[in-house]
Design brief:
The structure is a single chain. This protein has about 290 residues and is mainly β. It is built from 4 helices and 25 strands. The chain folds into 3 domains: about 90 residues, SH3 type barrels (Roll); about 60 residues, SH3 type barrels; about 120 residues, endopeptidase fold (from Nostoc punctiforme) (Alpha-Beta Complex), CATH 3.90.1720.10. β14 and β15 form a beta hairpin. α1 crosses α2. It starts with 16 loop residues before the first strand and ends in a 5-residue tail after the last strand. Pfam families: NLPC_P60 (PF00877), SH3_16 (PF18348). This is NlpC/P60 family protein. InterPro entries: NLP_P60_dom, Papain-like_cys_pep_sf, Peptidase_C40, SH3_16.
């Protein structure tokens, strides 16, 4: 039974599995997981505990991971709470769990050791990262949010975690020019499905991580035989690729052609992609924000 489970979504291996799978999957042993919080700015998640393997995805600061194994070499294996993705990551990027109060709304923001932009920053947080704010202070006219570890970020770059964007496609468009990165899931670099996921999350819409998952599950399927009838925010799929309809004959997508997040005329994109290995459009889906 275990062999039929997608390793990206189920914490099940031949030698080890999450306790919830006991009786449903085969494994040498079943264990309870321990929940940690990501304390790295970005934490790469890989299919194997090897630094030379391409990343599958990334966890962002403040997200939670349930860990089922840690190795002496500094690797951990577990599942990301945000979208259920399973893989290997550095245990050095993990810390104790705290309840987030805010998330980063700016494309990216520096985190400082003290509330003063003249100090060398500790790291660079991406859109979607989560933080716990304990107070505010002002230095030379700029208000800083003080985080639970004593560090500081510009308060204007944060919003309460429950904040929703009315036009989440605009967030995708704010990412125009961001480098394409296979497996990337941040404003430093991302791939096609991460662009959809990060932008949609700002509108309160949760979608799976990878394009094949989004094509099968995100929102509701709609006809794709007439692409000109699609609306802003609709998702258009090809084999291994997804883009967002941004307007009449306009597609926004992270792609390996420009190697960026880019606008592209929809008709031109359809023609170009049809001539490549990705072929014809396979599906269209429409997302709906929760009530």
């Amino acid at each position: 039974m275990s062999q039929s489970l997608d390793r990206r979504r189920h914490p099940v291996r031949a030698d080890l599995a999450a306790i919830d799978y006991e009786g449903r999957a085969e494994a040498a042993r079943f264990v309870e997981g321990e929940v940690f919080q990501v304390i790295a700015d970005r934490l790469p998640i890989r299919p194997e505990p090897r630094a030379d393997r391409s990343i599958d995805t990334e966890a962002l600061r403040g997200e939670w991971l349930t860990v089922y194994e840690q190795t002496p070499e500094g690797w951990a294996w577990g599942q990301l709470d945000t979208d259920g993705y399973v893989g290997w990551f550095s245990s050095g990027g993990l810390g104790p769990v705290t309840a987030a109060t805010h998330r980063v709304r700016a494309l990216r923001t520096y985190r400082y050791p003290v509330p003063d932009l003249k100090f060398p920053p500790l790291d660079l947080l991406s859109l979607g990262s989560k933080v716990t704010v304990t107070g505010e202070t002002e230095t030379r006219g700029l208000t800083y949010a003080i985080l639970n570890d004593g560090s500081a970020v510009a308060a204007r770059h944060l919003v309460p975690v429950e904040t929703r964007e009315e036009d989440w496609v605009l967030v995708a468009e704010e990412l125009l020019g961001t480098p394409y990165l296979w497996g990337g899931r941040s404003s430093i670099g991302l791939d096609c499905s991460a662009l959809v996921q990060l932008a949609a999350q700002t509108g309160g819409i949760d979608v799976p991580r990878d394009s094949d998952m989004q094509e099968a599950e995100a929102g509701e399927e709609i006809p794709h035989d007439d692409p000109s009838a699609l609306k802003r925010g609709d998702l258009l799929f090809w084999k291994g690729h997804v883009g967002i309809i941004a307007g009449a004959n306009k597609l926004v997508h992270a792609n390996g052609f420009t190697m960026t997040v880019a606008h592209e005329p929809l008709d031109r994109a359809i023609e170009r992609i049809a001539a490549s290995e990705w072929g014809a459009i396979t599906r269209a889906r429409r997302l709906k924000a929760p009530a």
